Amino acid sequence: MNARDHMNARDREMLGAAARGEPLALARALVATPSVNPVLSPGGHGEAAIAELAAGWLEAWGYETRVEEVAPGRHNVVAHLGDQGRTLLLNGHLDTVGVEGMTVPPFDALVADGRLLGRGSCDMKGGVAAALAAAAALARHRPASGRVIVALTADEEHASLGMQAVVGAGVRADAAVVCEPTDLAVMPAHKGFVWLDLLFLGRAAHGSRPDEGIDAVRHGALFVASLDALARELAAEAPHPLLGHGTFHVGTIHGGTAPSVYPAECRLSLERRILPGEGIAAATEPFRRALGTLSRAEPDLKAELTVGLSRPGTEVAPDSALVVGLLNALERQGMDRRMEGMTAWVDAAFLNEAGTPAVCFGPGSIAEAHSADEWCDVGQIETCARVLEDFARSFLAGE
Question: Is 233 marked active-site?
């Protein structure tokens, strides 16, 4: 069953309103089309059906549209309108996390008390709907100049294969808005992260033989306790004006086989959240230093530190045309001018690193993302669509 068959069976009226570019109908149609990331949740639908749905709308509105398979069963949609002047890119990801434990129907797209309920309503189909609604409005009354790119990507919730493919294909713009949930605040800066894995090697022995055993778990615990000093150092540094301080936490720790056995191994992983401009090497060096200090105090300690996945923190200047233009559009639409920092890592980093200034701006609160009763404020979806259209027209006109 393809996306249109699925939606026709559910609600023809909703699909018709979505085809006209109505924000809430678009959001409901997107939520009603499952797109669970199959890497995170085996059996997840992936993005094929939702990509087909969105591509159909964009093509009908006059966009030059293509669906790209960036990995088996994983799809992007990239659409273009116009060919001269400034270029604005609107972005959102199509995948969601899984639905286990949800307390609301994940795909019924119910609306109650001004809230759209369901998986992905907040993260980030409400934002994708706002971008699509703005794209539809721009197609109906085309700006005199400028180019609009709509890039809807796969796999943001796991490895960002979709955005990496977009950037790798050479897609660039003068500005980009990533419609992640920001509660309609403009967020020009976000933190990155680096994951560290540590393996402590002890020696297994019976619990009655302390002369033979080396307790790897104890060494891991001593290392974790030693990091309190690093936490104080980070808290004492000058904070980023929007993001505050860099932070870290221990995510997992495993070791030992039985109470009566000295543990031969202890494995722990930790995450360091990094600020824009902080290099990976500089962020990880204090942990290597702490390990070296502990090694000198504990002659039997043997440990390995490995750097895992990392993503940079990035930012756009608060006085840039992108940031100021979005704030001005908010004000013109009767909303407060709010600029904040995005504490989570988002795909905007890939755009910024490739030379396309990108900020986050979208409906819904990040606190609702991935939640058991995920929801997005309907009024914010509609307002976001108006702000995006307003900003796009102004930006493309060179104002």
Answer: no
